[in-house]
UniProtKB/TrEMBL annotation:
Lineage: superkingdom: Eukaryota
Swiss-Prot/TrEMBL keywords: Hydrolase
Protein name, entry field: Nudix hydrolase 8 isoform X2
InterPro entries on file: Nudix_hydrolase, NUDIX_hydrolase-like_dom_sf, Nudix_hydrolase6-like, NUDIX_hydrolase_dom, Pre-Nudix
Organism: Thrips palmi (Melon thrips)
Molecular-function annotations in GO: ADP-ribose diphosphatase activity; NAD binding; NADH pyrophosphatase activity
Residue ranges occupied by any Nudix hydrolase domain in the UniProt entry: 158-289
Family in the record: Belongs to the Nudix hydrolase family.
SUPFAM superfamilies in UniProt: Nudix
PANTHER family in the cross-refs: FI03680P (PTHR13994:SF13), NUDIX HYDROLASE RELATED (PTHR13994)
Length: 337
């Protein structure tokens, strides 16, 4: 530990501190300095690079959100691990990031910690942060600061989205597959999980192409199944989409990595096949019912007026069925009577 006279502050502010250091090899960092002869020092040694970081590092700034929250990204605000605890909680004279956020009435504080900065995690956990979610390259931790307000931070997304495709050709044959890694013999609809940022209809077209080499385009949505406590304990939504195969798609080529067999099967055979699950029979029966009645569930693309984000809106087209009178039509008829 160096003598007190070798380390003294020359400038103190809410953002940073400059120091005069006579010992050029090592020094001990003080949590607080006061008028007492001994001061309050911790017996810790730092490299000069760490010291420069602590002296030049402002308190964490983060990005504000509309809910009066703050998100700090470790890739955008790097901090050496030895400096991190003090900048988070007790920088100089008890002015740390957490105290500053409390003074500013910040509600939720999020730390997006990249894999390379995983040393931050135990310090965050020791200061009231909990895991919210994790991806391959980062973990997100969060703390709720108000003591007189119930935490309303939503849980991370808990539903996975999958898609299955009904592809029927002009011969009334539907495209079916048998998976390579299966629990029991079965014929199922081609499909899989929707990728992040992927539309359901595009996922159906992609999965069919990957598993069977058939190119097909969206025709209509049929139905969906919702189940809880599924893969990874998540809820699961499975959307069934009808696709129309493009011309010349008779030749099939299976994906050897995932699929054991693929074929065009007569729809009547599929509905009565012993190795077809009853739920899949229901999906195909509904498809045939919609085909016969002219009912279809299609979509149109729209854009959010405020957020300026595009999205798809699915709605029912009654087709051959007589559509219900609109409220305006009903009023007009009443006025005539």
């Amino acid at each position: 530990m160096i003598a007190r006279g070798l380390l003294r502050p020359t400038l103190v502010c809410s953002k940073s501190i400059r120091w005069k250091v006579k010992d050029k090899l090592r020094f001990d960092f003080c949590d607080q300095l006061d008028s007492r002869p001994s001061g309050l020092c911790r017996n810790r040694s730092f490299s000069f690079s760490t010291f420069r970081t602590m002296c030049s590092q402002t308190l964490f700034v983060g990005t504000k959100d509309r809910f009066q929250g703050i998100t700090v990204d470790s890739t955008k605000e790097p901090c050496e691990i030895l400096a991190f605890p003090d900048i988070l909680k007790v920088f100089f004279f008890n002015v740390g990031s957490l105290n500053k956020w409390r003074e500013d009435k910040v509600r939720g504080v999020w730390f997006k910690v990249a894999l390379a900065d995983s040393g931050w995690v135990p310090h965050l956990a020791q200061n009231g942060f909990r895991y919210h979610h994790a991806q391959a390259s980062y973990v997100m931790m969060v703390a709720w600061l108000p003591e007189n307000e119930v935490c309303n931070i939503p849980q991370y997304a808990s539903t996975m989205v999958g898609v299955g495709a009904i592809v029927m050709n002009d011969k009334r044959q539907i495209l079916v597959v048998s998976e390579k890694y299966r629990l029991f013999p079965h014929w199922k609809l081609p499909g899989g999980y929707v990728e992040p940022g992927e539309e359901i209809v595009n996922a159906a077209e992609r999965e069919v192409l990957e598993e069977t080499s058939v190119r097909a385009k969206f025709k209509q949505m049929i139905c969906f199944r919702h189940v809880h406590n599924f893969t990874f304990g998540c809820s699961d939504m499975y959307f069934i989409v009808a696709l129309t195969p493009e011309p010349g798609q008779e030749v099939l080529k299976k994906c050897d990595r995932e699929i054991d067999a693929v074929e065009w099967m007569n729809v009547e055979e599929y509905l009565n096949h012993p190795n077809v699950h009853s739920t899949n029979r229901f999906f195909v029966s509904k498809f045939l019912e919609y085909e016969a009645s002219g009912i279809s569930l299609t979509y149109h693309e729209d854009t959010h007026q405020i957020l300026k984000k595009s999205y798809l809106v699915y709605s029912l087209d009654l087709g051959q069925h007589k559509k219900m009178d609109s409220p305006n039509d009903t009023i007009s008829q009443s006025n005539k009577q």
